[in-house]
Amino acid sequence: MKISIALCTYNGARFLPEQLASIASQTRPPDELIVCDDRSQDDTVDIIRRFAKTVGFPVSLHVNDENLGSFQNFGKAIGLCEGDLIALCDQDDVWLPEKLTRIASEFETNPKLGLLFTDAAVVDAQRKPLGFGIFTFFKFTEAERRAILQGRGFYALLRRNVVTGATAAFRSEWRHLVLPIERNSFLAHDGWIALLISAVAPIAFLDEPLIEYRQHDSQIQGIRINERKADSAGAYETHVQQLGSIRERLVRVAAPPEDLPNKIKWLDSQIRHVQTRINIPRNKIKRLPSIMKELFSGRYHRYSNGFYSAVRDLISRGNNRRHH
User: Residue 226: what pLDDT?
Assistant: First the structure.
């Protein structure tokens, strides 16, 4: 089983050397490192070139002709990978030495496994532990864990993404399904990849930190960014558009699993739920029937945060509200 690492860089010279050193120190080295640089203006490209001369595995550097942005840059890197497994990699983290060994073991043990993600220790810019992991920070619940363990990962991820891309790896056989990654993605590249793969293959998680997930002021993604994302203007509309695109991909899957039609029904149900929340009247009295209908249907609990979301919709102004 060959493992490719898809690393995306952009002005990463400050932290990149530590990340590259952690890749070189893996107890199970990668079979290739694919680096797509999004036109960095610092020493990033030179750091990668120097690194490539010091390691025993191939390092393939691709400097984009134009700035693609984070999501499309990951899509390009994924498309260039030739391994059986593709491990996503951020430029500013640090991998623990056993990361690739543990990931490979899980995929070898379960030949049907489509995607694996892990916990991560959250650290500050100087790699000082902040005392919690991303599973704790994002409140990865027992119900969500149980759903994934029981083969119902798609339904858990449909409600919200719990997969952090920097910890994830997936089988390259599903690359055709996830590419191209949509621009302006509500789910970001990791949520997009995880939701699509979970519809056609089992997913799993390791309840142990295999990377140090660095938080700093200049990062593109991170826990602070993720907190704000759902409050951005137009988030509902973007989410509906993306769910529709995911549906289009799933109905075209060749040799679909037996339960895929039911998953598509759930996807349709969530699309109706989000559209209903988009169209809730501004007048609080007029919006009550729509909210009550969604509550009684169970969709607030399946796709949002239950009564909490319903109350937010009832007291908010009716547009551009937080989705969850």
Answer: 44
